């Protein structure tokens, strides 16, 4: 039986968005491959403590704060590896490479080194996912007003939009989603269409976002570059992971105007539900820009919001 090894890995990001990769040295498994810095979790250590120790030993930096992010598993010939990925939120010191052949600061959208260690490869797509998701409600406020708000938000660097209009007809949704794609493209923003992969493909959107009811009946992942889903329970999150979805949205964290009286998770409940998942999860429900740090501290990839995403116009 292949032994299972727990490994902690850190995503160290500069202010320009580039993240650090290290090249495995000669004499190690997969020599020459690139990976996120980190190492094995020793007996009695938590993954977070192991990462802090490893980054000190490998890179000579003192880590002050890490945030839980993703947990992925990969079976190599020599070991079944469970990788605990963390966002290295605060660190100090000068990088001094003690174990790698080379270090490189890379971009998620234009990686310049390779090959990636197989267990680390899928992380690159997750790093392409923006941290804030704006969700539309054009049927409520009017299409023209929503498009104006989207235009303003794109100018303020919004990079991810979910077109969610359950009360629109297919024809109206197609027209509206097409307009969103048109205005989003020059800004490099991703657009997901809620509930209809065919319309997403027709208008040239980047992917489809599945409501929870649709997720529960999903047998095959839709043929889109990006596929996400709305979730409310751990079972739904695990279903999204099992289907190979790229992300999930989980809520409600706090009370919302959209669903008054709905039970809420709070940050403690949110953190419990997302622990150990292999894909990014956005926090949803009564959240604003000021909640981003709390969301990521709880294990969220970022925040999704309806009203909190749009400049009022």
Short description:
The chain has 313 residues and is an alpha/beta fold. The chain contains ten helices and 15 strands. It has helices at residues 47-59, 123-127, 138-141, 143-155, 170-184, 197-203, 212-216, 234-242, 266-274, 292-297; strands at residues 4-12, 19-23, 34-35, 38-40, 62-75, 80-92, 102-106, 132-135, 160-163, 190-194, 207-210, 226-231, 247-251, 281-284, 302-305.
Please give a handful of descriptors for the protein shown.
single chain; 313 residues; alpha/beta; Nucleoside Triphosphate Pyrophosphohydrolase; TIM Barrel; 8-stranded parallel beta barrel; 4-stranded mixed beta sheet; globular; Nudix_hydrolase; magnesium
Could you characterize what this model shows?
The structure is a single chain. This protein is α/β, with parallel strands linked by helices and 313 residues long. It has 2 domains: 4-124, Nucleoside Triphosphate Pyrophosphohydrolase (Alpha-Beta Complex); 132-309, TIM Barrel (Alpha-Beta Barrel). Helices cover 27% and strands 28% of the residues. The chain contains 10 helices and 15 strands. The strands form 3 sheets. An 8-stranded parallel barrel has the order 8-9-10-11-12-13-14-15. The protein has a 4-stranded mixed beta sheet with strand order 4-1-6-5, with helices on one face. It starts with a strand and ends in an 8-residue tail after the last strand. Belongs to the Nudix hydrolase family. One of its GO terms (molecular function) is hydrolase activity. InterPro entries: Aldolase_TIM, MutT-like, Nudix_hydrolase, NUDIX_hydrolase-like_dom_sf, NUDIX_hydrolase_CS, NUDIX_hydrolase_dom, ThiamineP_synth_sf, ThiamineP_synth_TenI. This is 8-oxo-dGTP diphosphatase. Its cofactor is Mg(2+).
